[in-house]
């Protein structure tokens, strides 16, 4: 079995052009393979963030749990996640100063102009904002503004009920993570969010660290400590249905039997054939995902009549290194980085939504851009230090030297940087309408990373309700079958906001574990 799985992954990697090495700090947890029991109250398929969160919550509700994972390590794409987790109305936000008036006003104007269907929600947010301005205490963010950002970002294709749960429960997810010793204490800006909402971990020196390689070992340890049994290097292939109820999972010759099954197998961005079926235009794009993201859960569930939603909604991310397929986190732009084209000129609001920034980038000469940071940003982030260590950057002691290393016109880049620093000082970007500025880019050495879009996230997937029950084509819940995380569709609509997927896996992973446990009573 192990050999077969290894061969399968290798061939998938070749097919998908996906990198085989997880981009983490070497912290992945590797539970001891153990295949003694084949029966438990709840069977979870996939040991990524959603699966392990669900497993922990099911055990917390008093149930026995087996997690089946096809890779040799826990984590999946969750290990690769870098930026952080969105949550509104948190105590962490109240520790920072509110200076995002322009972001809120821009969102309200955009929602009014483009989304009349969201008029009621927009009016609620406007009222909340007026009340805050009249009596400014703490930081301004609300669950309703989180919803509005997510719906506008997702072009209002999202399932509103799921988005409401996401927005209301994310702050509880941040608190829940503290119970497994995970503290996302730093709050910052990210694309498509009107205010500072993304929650990130920091190391002992106070530097930002990647969220996934921070969370995965903690989730794995918590699950192991609570007695979850992991069955590693074992790919589930089929759901078992008895008298109309899902009662287990087949993996090769072994059947794992349970009262409920949770699918948490992640998305399908690494399955080139499946991506091109829905988006033929993405032929030749690199992919940021772990190689195992091949849509297995979608195949298993649709084989027994599950419905899917938004399958053609596949996100490309604008800042991917084309040589290594490594994603360069949006957090850099949130923290002040700019994008310039091969002529050394800015061309778009860098913290716009991913679809919009990607489209603007593709329209530039050569279809690529340079992401620029300065030494102050490097000093504050071990994530950027990691990019430098991986050889992803070119460097210059001053802006002219950086331009030479990038092969762009020095005078043009100096003019761009001067103009940008004036925008930061004024808190206004007349040319492209960016509303989050952070600090000036004015301390050498300067660094640039060459980036272009890559296939990143599959917004579509299994159709679920707010209890994470998987629905059939008639909208009825399939008894005993639950799903959470990137295997599902509907939360993110036509475009996922950065930070919303980690919120998704924690919020809906928890619900899946609780609901499956209740069903298994
Ligand atoms: C480079 C990168 C950076 C990202 N950064 C962020 C970020 O900063 N913030 C954010 O919100 N989102 C981010 N995302 C998105 C986010 O990480 C994912 O959407 C999310 O982690 C998916 O979690 P999941 O639990 O649903 O799936 P995964 O974490 O992918 O886990 C799925 C697991 O299921 C296993 N599996 C699959 N098929 C089978 C099978 N047949 N049998 C057994 N096991 C199976 C896989 O091996 C895997 O371990 C990023 C994604 C990438 C790729």
UniProtKB/TrEMBL annotation:
Q: Which PROSITE patterns match?
A: PROKAR_LIPOPROTEIN
> Cofactor(s) for this protein?
FAD
**Per the record's keyword annotation, is Acetylation included, yes or no?**
no
- InterPro entries, A to Z: FAD-dep_OxRdtase_2_FAD-bd, FAD-oxidoreductase_2, FAD/NAD-bd_sf, Flavocytochrome_c, Succ_DH/fumarate_Rdtase_cat_sf
**Keyword Flavoprotein included in the entry's annotation:** yes
Recorded GO molecular functions are:
FMN binding; steroid dehydrogenase activity, acting on the CH-CH group of donors
Taking every annotated instance into account, which residue ranges of this chain make up the domain FAD-dependent oxidoreductase 2 FAD-binding? Answer: 41-117, 141-502
Key words of the record: FAD, Flavoprotein, Oxidoreductase, Signal
Annotated signal peptide: 1-25
Q: Which protein family is it in?
A: Belongs to the FAD-dependent oxidoreductase 2 family. FRD/SDH subfamily.
Protein name, UniProt field: Flavocytochrome c
């Amino acid at each position: 079995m192990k050999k077969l799985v290894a061969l399968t992954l290798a061939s998938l990697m070749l097919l998908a052009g996906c990198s085989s090495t997880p981009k983490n700090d070497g912290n992945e947890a590797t539970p001891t393979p153990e295949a003694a029991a084949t029966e438990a109250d709840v069977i979870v398929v996939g040991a990524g963030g959603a699966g392990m969160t669900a497993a922990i919550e099911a055990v917390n509700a008093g149930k026995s749990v087996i997690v089946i994972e096809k890779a040799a390590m826990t984590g999946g794409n969750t290990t690769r996640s870098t930026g952080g987790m969105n949550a509104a109305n948190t105590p962490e936000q109240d520790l920072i100063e509110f200076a995002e008036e322009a972001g809120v006003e821009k969102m309200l104007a955009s929602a009014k102009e483009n989304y009349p269907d969201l008029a009621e929600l927009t009016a609620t947010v406007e009222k909340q904002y007026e009340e805050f301005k009249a009596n400014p205490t703490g930081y301004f963010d609300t669950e309703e503004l989180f919803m509005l950002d997510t719906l506008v970002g997702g072009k209002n294709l999202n399932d509103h009920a799921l988005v409401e749960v996401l927005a209301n429960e994310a702050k509880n997810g941040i608190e829940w993570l503290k119970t497994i010793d995970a503290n996302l204490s730093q709050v910052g800006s990210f694309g498509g969010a009107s205010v500072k909402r993304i929650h990130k971990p920091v190391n002992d020196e106070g530097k930002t660290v990647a969220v996934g390689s921070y969370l995965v070992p903690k989730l794995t340890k918590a699950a192991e400590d609570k007695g979850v049994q992991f069955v590693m290097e074992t790919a589930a292939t089929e759901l078992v249905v008895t008298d109309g109820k899902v009662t287990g999972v087949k993996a090769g010759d072994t059947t794992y039997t349970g009262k409920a099954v949770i699918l948490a197998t992640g998305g399908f961005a690494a399955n080139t054939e499946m991506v091109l079926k829905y988006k033929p235009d993405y032929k030749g794009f690199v992919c940021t995902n772990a190689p195992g993201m091949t849509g297995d859960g979608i195949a298993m569930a649709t084989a027994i009549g599950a419905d899917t939603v938004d399958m053609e909604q596949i996100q490309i991310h604008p800042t991917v290194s084309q040589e290594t397929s490594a994603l360069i986190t949006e957090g850099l732009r949130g923290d002040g980085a700019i994008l310039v084209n091969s002529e050394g000129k800015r061309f778009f609001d860098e913290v716009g939504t991913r679809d919009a920034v990607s489209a603007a980038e593709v329209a530039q000469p050569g279809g690529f851009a340079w992401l620029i940071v300065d030494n102050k940003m490097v000093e504050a982030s071990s994530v950027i230090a990691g990019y430098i260590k991986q050889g992803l950057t070119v460097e210059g002691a001053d802006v002219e030297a950086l331009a030479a290393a990038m092969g762009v016109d020095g005078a043009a880049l100096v003019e761009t940087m001067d103009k940008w620093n004036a925008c930061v000082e004024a808190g206004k970007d007349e040319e492209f309408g960016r509303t989050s500025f952070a600090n000036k880019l004015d301390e050498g050495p300067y660094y640039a990373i060459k980036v272009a879009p890559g296939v990143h996230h599959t917004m579509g997937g299994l159709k679920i309700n707010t209890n994470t029950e998987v629905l059939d084509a008639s909208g009825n819940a399939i008894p005993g079958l639950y799903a959470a995380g990137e295997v599902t569709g509907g939360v993110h609509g036509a475009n996922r906001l950065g930070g919303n997927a980690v919120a998704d896996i924690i919020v809906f992973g928890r619900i899946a574990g609780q609901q499956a446990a209740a069903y298994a009573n």
